[in-house]
Each structure stands twice: as C-alpha cells, then as structure tokens.
Design a protein that fits this description.
The complex is a heterodimer. Chain A is an alpha/beta fold. Chain A has 2 domains: 3-74 and 95-121; 129-257, Immunoglobulin-like, CATH 2.60.40. Helices cover 40% and strands 23% of the residues of chain A. Chain A is built from 6 helices and 11 strands. In chain A, strands 3-2-1-5-8-11 form a 6-stranded mixed β-sheet, covered by helices on one side. Chain A has a 5-stranded mixed β-sheet with strand order 4-10-9-6-7, covered by helices on one side. In chain A, helix 3 (43-75) runs antiparallel to helix 4 (93-121). Chain A starts with a helix and ends in an 11-residue tail after the last strand. The radius of gyration of chain B is 25 Å and the shape is globular. Chain B has helices at residues 2-6, 10-34, 48-65, 69-76, 103-132, 142-176, 185-204, 230-258, 271-302, 316-333, 336-350, 357-371, 389-398, 400-414, 424-447, 449-455, 459-489, 495-521, 536-566, and strands spanning 598-599, 614-615. By secondary structure, chain B is mainly alpha-helical. Chain B folds into 2 domains: 2-75, no CATH class; 100-566, Cytochrome C Oxidase, Chain A (Up-down Bundle), CATH 1.20.210. In chain B, 61% of the residues are buried. Chains A and B meet through helix 3, helix 4, strand 7 and strand 9 of A and helix 6, helix 12, helix 13, helix 14 and helix 15 of B.
C-alpha cells in the first residue's frame, strides 16, 4: 500500500481540527484551575508557569491519542459477521520517523525549559540569609544567624523578599522539608548538609511538612512557617532566648556539604 | 510414612524446613554460647536466632521439596534418576502443588500464586483506603498503617506484577517460539518455588515483634537499618523473589536465543518474545543491585557493618543510588512484558499486522538501554550531587520517545484494520493505551526537576505510579489473562462478566487515581495515615472508588474460577490468531508439539494473501522432519 493513498483516505484535516478543539477545551479547563495552591515564593510562579506549559503540551498529546483512538474505533470497527482481515499495512517509514522526531523535539524543549527554570530558582544572591534547619523524629527546629546562634522549635520565622539559604541537618533518619506554597522541597539527610534556596515573597503563615517517611510520627511532623516584614522578623529573633543545643551545633560543624564544587573538591 | 520422607514432596519439604530452621537456630545459639555471649540477642535490629533460621528454613524446604535432587545426585556422582516425564502435565489440581518441570504447569502455578498475593495486597489497599477515607486516625494506628502500605507495595511489586508476567510468558513463550519447553526446566521449577517463600516472608513479617516492615517498599536507610525485626523479613524476602526473577530471566534468555523453531529469525519473533527478551536483559543486570542493597541493610542491622550508618562514616545516600539503580529498571521490568501482551492482543483483534514491527522491537531495546541511565530522577530532592540532576532529567525525558513510538504504533495498527471489541482482552488493551498515556504524561512532568521538586513524595507520585502500574501493568496483565485463558485452561471465560470487570476496573482506576494528582499538587504528602482536613472530601471520594475497584475484582475471580471449571470448551484458536501457540490444541499437548513447527514468515501477517507464520506438523508434504530438540538438562 503506497503511503500517499493511505493518508488520502483519512480525513486528516478534520482529525486535526478535532485534536485542536479538544486541546483547547482541555487547556481551558485545566489552566483555569490553580493546581499548586497559593504561591508564596519567587520560585513558585516560575514552576507554575512550567507546569502550565506542560499542561498545554500534554493536552495536545493526550488529544492526539484520544482522537486517533476513537476515530479508529468508530471507522474501523468490524461489521457484524465480517470475518475478513484488515489491510496488510506493515508500517510507514516517514510516519515512524515523524513520531520519533517530533516527541524528541518536544521533550528536549521541555528539558531545556526546565533546566532554565532550575537555574533561575536556585540562583544564589550575595545578601542571602542562612537559616539552619534541624530535623529529628518527629520535630523541626531552626537556628538563626548571628553570633548568638538563637534557636526556635516548631516555628520558623523568615523575612519576606530576602533570599534564604536553608542549611538542613537530620539527626536520626531522613526527613524532607516542604513548604507547598514555596514549591520547594529538600531532604534532610543524616551526616550531610543539604541546601535549599527560597525567596519568600508573600507575608503569611504556612505549614512545613515532612515528606520523607521517617517513622510512625511522620504524618504529624509539621511546623509553622511565618513570613513577615524584616522589622518584625528582627524583633522576633531578638526575642529568642534559647541557643542551638550542643548536639545540633555539632551536626552543623561536622556534616559535610553534599555539593562540593566539582573541580575544587579534589584540590584541582 | 518412611516412603513419604524419602520421596520429594510436601512431607519431606516440611521436614527440610524444620531441619533448616533447627540447624540455623542451633548454629546461632551454640556459636553465641561458645563466645560467651547471652544466648538470645533481642535488639530490635538483631534477633540472629530468628534471622538465620529464616534463611535456612526456606532453603531446607526447597531441598526437601525436591528442587535440588537431580543436581545434587549429579554433583555427588550418584546415579541420577532419569526423567520418566511423569512430571510433565497436570492431570488433576493436585499436580499444581508438586514440583513440576513442565513450563505450562509452572506458568499456571506462577499465575495462581501471584494472583493470590494480588488479592492479599488488594485487601491491604482496602484497609489503607478505609483509614484514609476520613482525616484523623480511625482504623489502624500510624505504625500499622506504615506496615500496611509497605507490605501492600512489596506484595504487588515483588510477588505480583513482576512474577505474573514471568508466569504468563512461561506458559506462552515456549509455545510461541515453537519450543517443547523452557531451556532449563528444573531451574524453572526452582524459580517458581522460591516465589511463594518470598511472599510468605513478606506476609509473615506481621508476626514479628514490632510488626511488619514499615519503611516503605523503598526501605530507605537509615530508617530501615534501625527498624524492628520485620525489616529483616523484607530483606530476606527480596533475596528469594530476586533470585527467582534472575533465574527465570536467564532461562528466558537462553530459551529465546537458542530454542526458536527453525525459520524463526529474530525479526520473525512475536513482540511478546521481544518484550521478554528485553525484560530479561534488564532483570539479569539490574536485580543483583537490589539483592545487594538489601544484604547491605541486613549486614548493617545484624553484623553492625556501617555501610549506611552516617555516625560511623557510612554514606546514607548511596543506599538510594544502589536501590534505584535496580528499582528504576524494575519499572520497565514491570512494563515491557505488558507492552508485548498489548501488541499480541491489538494485532490479533484488529486483524492487522503490527504497524512498524521493527521499530517496535527497537523501541524495546531503546528503553532497556536508556532505563539504566535514569535512576537518579527518583533523587532530585534527595540531596545528591546537584550536577547529576540535569543529565538524569534529559535521559528521563528521552525515554518518553521509545514509549511514545509504541503508543503511536499501536494506534497505527488499528487503522484500516477490522477491530473486534467482543473480547475483554481487547477492551483492556484499548483502555491501556489511554490510561498509560496519562501515566506517561505525568511521568514526563515528574522528570522535570522543578516540577519534581514540588510534587516529589506527594500524592502526585502515588497517582503516577498507580496509573503506570495499575492502569498500565495490571491492565496488560488482565488483557493477557483473558487473551490466553482459553489456551491455558481449554475453556472459554464469560465475556459478559469480563465486560462488567472491565468497565468497573476502568471507572474504578480513574476515579481512584485521577483525584490523587490534584491533592498531591495541592499539598498532601504521601505515606501519611492522617492529613489536613481540607483534603477530606477528595479522600472520601477516592476511597469510595477504591472500594468499587476492589469489589469488582471479585467478579474477575469468580469468572476465572467458574469458567475454568464449567466454561464451554475452547477451540484451538478462538481469536483466529497467527502465532504458533494458537495452532496447537487448547490446552496444548503435554509436549507442545509432535514435531517442531517450521516458521516461514512474520507473526502478524493478517490480511496478507497466502502468508503463513508457521507450518505445523502434518501440514503439507514438504514439511521436513523436525530436528531433535534439546531439552536442557541443567
């Protein structure tokens, strides 16, 4: 069966129209919903945009599959009593090349875009503030910068509009730090210091959720996150009395960084 | 009585298990006594007097049951007992409970055993959903909940999805390639009998002090290295399931490479054979990694090595690297055989050659190669080297390309065909295309690091894996079971009940797993028995659909059991398929073929005038006498 005559018998334009119409409808519904919930960091809108672009592409891919499948089922479903075989078409090289190359281009575009977003949301700035995050079964606590090493338990305060570099330490098993409104998550791993970068851009109270299974108390391992204007934050920190306890302090000094710069790590 | 003890079988097996356990227990106790230690060490990670018997009792059972008899005699220079082929075929249901080297019997043993664990794991899923129907803790406490979802996942992965594919292929594949049996029938039987032992260890862990293993099926260190005794049951169960898997994969590789009927070139193999070739390549190279990882955890627990103990210089993250180096390929181990099943079902019921057969086969190989280079996408937020994320993201996204090729080729196969939808297997195959596309799309999203950072370890992941493993793998398993049920049992199943099962499963799957995407993105973490009340209504709805999904599986069970016993007799080739297994009677003769068939064309030549896939014995005078077949005697 020559390729041309094969395509010629399919209503390509109508199918294309159906695919586009379906894509538009799905996108209209899907994009009108705020899937990720409230956004409260500079990274959040970038991640949400990436998600929305992916929703558009995915709607198209899904529509292609659905239209192609249901058209085939409608058009080529066997008539009752017909025992004959279909047409002996074994393939079509051009079509096969097309559905290898086009998806490759789409996923590489997605990969490039994701790479760009990743670089943007993790771009460190000079005046970033470092906050230590300590996790243990089943509680969070936090150490703030300054020579006093002040410390708070179960409640994290950060100033708004300032980049925070969280240095994370776990005392027993792996925990994971997630504030959904910030869209940022990072495991806290015993023995190493992991880093997450966040710039909160919305004042408010949020929840810090442990997302790595850590034992029977995992579901209740939560903490409160308060994002407030810098003045208020300073006042709150100044009011803290406790200092970072000795064992936690030790994990700050002894844990190794996960990410030594690749070339300097070996002394090169 | 004495005869029963001498003869391989259940009595000797039970005695072997007892002897193994007693020897293990005695060994530990006496060594500790000699060393002047307290006889019983009952730290929660310890219990050597339980763990060592747990290794030796299953081995004792296998030896007693007769799995090693032939080899041991041969190795010892004793006269081996020549096979009188009485072990072939099953004449009554009792024969399925014996050591049997017939690939068809083993296939059915595999399928029934794995479905048993499917229903056990399914019951656990029902308990999980009952607990999650409302926020707060109602039915089980947090520790039990952790055990339940861990055991659910482990049963479904290690003793259902992976081995049920081995079971289907065990039955069908030798017939498909025109072989009288698998290459190593005794190894094949041993592979099967290791499997229920793994399942028993997993389920038996509920009896251990401290409860069943509760560190998730991923068993991340150091949670797992410090967990109660149940974790050791998991570490050991994985060894038996893994050894079973590896031995079967070797068997498939040798069978496929050396035992194809004359004329069956690689490019004339049905895609199910290609799929199992690819899967076996993954299993033999990847599965040793999970076996190693679990041994390392066991050593940390029992021998106090410090492989993953950060306080003693161990490296916590390396566990995840080793684990995922197996467990990502495992995702394809659980999917590629299903791809093969879908190709068979769609081509047969659309009466059309597979569209782009060679590219379909190459796509499988492409997935095999790529799947070894994507494991760290499970670790984007794990704190590993950050530079590893982008390369792993790109390979992860690229693996969508061969997968997409398969989806499009199945769709292409439907065009200009004559699509029959009367069989439940075709319904599952068509639904699989849609459902798996959703799972693929969410997989691509998860592959993108920024999106993954947000949704990793949330219900979005739960939604994704269930769309891929339930909407994907399990749909293909149902398609395969319905497709080959007439061949395996010689009976037809009830299509009406099949349709009820199909629609119930489809609606149940979507209703259960689609909303999980939303609540995950909106902030619900996974592996929690209690959650914020804002997700209460969604979870109630998910639980209702899940109960429906669970209940509808009973229709399947009823259909299978009753049809097997009372269904109308099946003709040799009810679907008018081309491949060789349909050219012999249903069920096939004990030795498959009187003469080995001769393959003269491709497997999917529907609609090609005069085309044949294989010429069976007795057809035409030009059929040469079959070459003597070599049944392996390892």
């Amino acid at each position: 069966m020559p390729a041309a005559s094969m395509y010629g018998r399919l209503p390509i334009l109508k199918m294309l129209a159906a695919i586009i119409a379906m894509t538009v409808v799905i996108c209209a519904v899907m994009l009108s919903i705020n899937w990720d919930g409230q956004a409260a960091s500079t990274a959040a809108p970038k991640i949400d945009d990436l998600l929305n672009v992916m929703i558009i592409i995915s709607s198209f891919v899904f529509s292609v599959v659905i239209v192609a499948l249901f058209y085939a089922l409608w058009k080529f479903k066997v008539k009752p009593g017909d025992e004959s075989d279909g047409e002996p078409i074994h393939g079509n090289t051009r079509l096969e090349i097309a559905w290898t190359l086009i998806p490759t281009i789409i996923v590489l575009f997605g990969g490039g875009y994701s790479w760009k977003v990743l670089d943007e949301i993790e771009e460190p700035v000079k005046d970033a503030m470092t906050v230590d995050v300590f996790s243990q079964q089943y509680a969070w606590s936090f150490g703030y910068p300054g020579k006093d090493n002040v410390y708070s338990q179960g409640e994290l305060h950060v100033p708004v509009y300032r980049q925070i570099q969280f240095k994370m330490h776990a005392q027993d098993v792996i925990h994971s730090f997630w504030v959904p409104e910030w869209r940022i998550k990072k495991d806290n791993v015993p023995g190493i210091t992991t880093t997450a970068i966040v710039t909160p851009d919305r004042v408010g109270t949020y929840q810090l959720i442990c997302t790595e299974l850590c034992g029977f108390g995992h579901a209740s391992m939560r903490a409160t996150v308060v994002v407030e204007p810098p003045g208020q934050f300073q006042k709150w920190v100044a009011g803290l009395k406790e200092k970072v306890p000795q064992p936690l302090e030790q994990s700050v000094t002894q844990d190794t960084e996960t990410n030594p710069p690749p070339l300097t790590a070996g002394g090169a | 009585m004495l005869a029963a003890i001498k003869r391989p079988g259940w009595t000797r097996g039970a005695l072997g298990a007892l002897a193994g356990a007693a020897f293990g227990f005695g060994l530990v106790i006496s060594l500790r006594a000699i060393s002047g230690l307290p006889l019983y060490q009952t730290e929660q990670t310890g219990y050597p007097h339980v763990v060592v018997p747990l290794i030796l009792a299953p081995l004792g059972f296998l030896a007693g049951f007769g799995c090693f008899d032939y080899w041991l005699r041969w190795a010892a220079g004793a006269p081996t007992i020549p096979d009188d082929h009485s072990q072939h075929g099953a004449r009554s249901w009792k024969d399925y409970f014996r050591f049997n080297t017939d690939h068809k019997v083993i296939g059915i043993q595999y399928i029934c055993t794995t479905f048993f664990f499917f229903f056990v794991g399914g019951l656990m899923a029902m308990l999980i959903r009952a607990e999650l129907a409302q926020p707060g803790t109602q039915i089980v406490d947090a520790a039990t909940y952790n055990s339940l979802f861990s055991t659910h996942a482990v049963l479904m992965i290690f003793v259902f999805v992976i081995p049920v594919f081995a079971g289907i292929a065990n039955y069908v594949l030798p017939l498909m390639i025109g072989a009288p049996d698998m290459a190593f029938p005794r190894l094949n039987a041993l592979s099967f009998w290791m499997l229920p032992l793994a399942g028993i260890l997993f389920v038996g862990s509920f009896l251990a002090p401290g409860g069943a293993f509760d560190a998730g099926w991923t068993g991340y260190a150091p949670l797992s290295t410090g967990a109660p005794l149940g974790q050791s049951f998991f570490n050991l169960g994985v060894q038996f399931a893994g050894a079973s898997s590896i031995a079967t994969a070797l068997n498939f590789l040798v069978t496929i490479i050396t035992m194809r009927a004359p004329g069956m070139t690689f490019w004339r193999m049905p895609l199910l054979v290609w799929a199992n070739l690819s899967t076996s390549l993954l299993v033999v190279a990847a599965t040793p990694f999970i076996a190693g990882a679990q041994f390392m955890v066991l050593f940390d627990r029992l021998l106090h090595t410090n492989l993953f103990q950060f306080a003693s210089g161990g490296d916590v993250i390396s566990y995840q690297h080793i684990f995922w180096f197996y467990s990502h390929p495992a995702v394809y181990i659980m999917m590629l055989p299903g791809f093969g099943i879908i190709s068979e079902v769609i081509s047969t019921h659309a009466r059309k050659p597979i569209f782009g057969y060679r590219l379909m086969a190459l796509a499988l190989i492409g997935i095999v190669v790529l799947s070894y280079s994507v494991w760290a996408h499970h670790m984007f937020v794990a704190g590993m080297f950050s530079w590893l994320r982008v390369p792993m993201m790109l390979t992860t996204l690229l693996i969508a390309v061969p997968t997409g090729i398969k989806i499009f080729s199945w769709l292409g196969t439907l065009y200009f065909g004559k699509i029959h939808t009367y069989s439940t297997s075709m319904l599952f195959a068509l639904a699989f295309i849609v459902t798996f596309t959703i799972g693929g799309i969410s997989g691509v999203m998860l592959g993108m690091v920024p999106i993954d950072i947000h949704v990793s370890d949330t219900y979005f992941i739960v939604a994704h894996i269930h769309f891929v493993l339930f909407g994907g793998s399990v749909f293909t398993i149902f398609a395969g079971i319905y497709h080959w049920f007439p061949k395996m049992t010689g009976r037809m199943y009830d299509e009406k009940l099949g349709r009820v099962h199909f629609w119930g499963t489809l609606i149940g799957t979507w209703g259960t797993f689609i909303p999980m995407h939303w609540i995950g993105m909106d902030g619900m973490p996974r592996r929690v028995e209690d959650y914020a009340s804002q997700f209460g209504n969604w979870n109630l709805m998910i639980s209702c659909f899940a109960f429906m999904l669970g209940a509808i599986q009973l229709v399947f069970l009823y259909n299978m059991i009753v049809s097997w016993r009372f269904g109308p007799k099946a003709p040799a080739n009810p679907w008018r398929a081309n491949s060789i297994e349909w050219q012999v009677s249903s069920p096939p003769p004990i030795f498959n073929f009187d003469e080995i068939p001769r393959v003269v064309g491709g497997p999917y030549e529907y609609g090609v005038p005069g085309a044949r896939h294989a010429i069976m014995a007795g057809e035409g005078a030009d059929v040469p006498a079959a070459e003597p077949s070599v049944v392996g005697s390892a």
